[in-house]
Amino acid sequence: MKKIQLFLLVLCALMLSGCVLNSTGKTEVGVRTVKFSLFGKKGVEDKIYPPGSTTILLPFVNDWHTFDTKLQNLEMTAEMRRGDRTTKDDLLFKTIDGNDISLDVIIAYRIDPQKAPYILQHVAINDKALREKVVRTVARSKPRDIFGELKTEDFYVAEKRAEKSDQAKERLQEILGPYGIIIERVLTKDYRFNVEYQKAIEGKKIADQMVEKNKSAQHAALEEYRKELEKAKGEVNKLVADADGVYAKAQIEADAYYEKQKFLADAIEAEGRAEAQGIEQMNKALAGAGGETLVKLQVAEALQGKKIILLPVSEGGMNLKTTNINELINTMGVKALAAPKPQATK
Hints:
alpha+beta
């Protein structure tokens, strides 16, 4: 036992003399792996060393790994000397209607710091291996399937591309999330079709633009027509309002005239009733005892100053029923003219 203890003390002294400082950057987390231990557990330590920290570890019995947690972009593009490759690296696939297309895609991702020990133990030993073997492999596969669900012309519609980008982000997160990878965004850039098909599409787009232009012109003409229609409606409404005003004025005047005539008719009726009542009262008076005397008086007044001729109408005389009174008057008038005029006395 003493020999063993002495050996361990010597080993510890040797190790302490060769301790190594291990540091993490501002965006890095560190993970320790215990390679040899007399009393503790060997393997990846389930602990992270935070960014900007320094840790003293013994060499040979410990391994040290770091993972960068900052946002990283995996760019796959057709433009050479850009992105992850110095060669053409865009995604090639077919649209749902069978046309070939190439698409530039950027996958924005980062590492979940809390899962750094799991990544080291089960996924990759560093950032490069994680990027190449896991993120890139999955990112070049699933987006092809999702964007391949679009029709050829759908790629010209930004909203539809954005919708598929969101679907690709969700699908990648489902796959890569358990590996400690967080997908932030899936972005699309340029897309390219077959040259001949591209020309055909551009021609169709030009034709569609002309159609839209004609639609705009038609819409403008329709709006102008509606404007003129509203203007005409305004004129008609004005004429109707004027006519209604004239009608209302005439109706008021007619009502006033009617009321006036009604009052006049009522007055005439009242006057007639009063006169009729007067006549009725007169008739009643005439029907009484003094009526005959009043009639005689009025007859006398009517005959006053009139020339009266007495005709013999007794028996053996003139019969008024058979006598021509007109001839008789004429004859008497001639005789009166033939009679000598009396001399005026001095």
